[in-house]
Amino acid sequence: MLNYLWFFLAALFEIAGCYAFWMWLRQGKSALWVIPALISLTLFALLLTRVEATYAGRAYAAYGGIYIIASIAWLGVIERVRPLTSDWIGVGLCVIGATIILLGPRWSAA
């Protein structure tokens, strides 16, 4: 369960960092937005390493589902755009997939 906390915190920092770059490059804000962007993206990377997983690729794949939840929440809370029902259905499917990747049985590929 602690993995989901790390994923959620990592997602917030990743989205915030990318959003800061978005504000600078797409919205014409000051280049000073790069400073919090880089700090936020560094924290994102550090937090993602806290996940209990044997392989980084599996952790990153599972993280993708949580990132999608956080992105849709960001859309609603920060950008003030109401997510569509189809957004939430997609989120649900991604969370199921992330959970299977992270906690599913490990059968041999051979």
From TrEMBL:
Membrane topology of this protein: Multi-pass membrane protein
Coiled coil feature spans: none
Subcellular location as annotated: Cell membrane
Keyword line: Cell membrane, Membrane, Transmembrane, Transmembrane helix
Main location: membrane
Residue intervals passing through the bilayer: 6-24, 31-48, 60-77, 89-107
InterPro entries: EmrE-like, UPF0060
Family statement: Belongs to the UPF0060 family.
Protein name: YnfA family protein
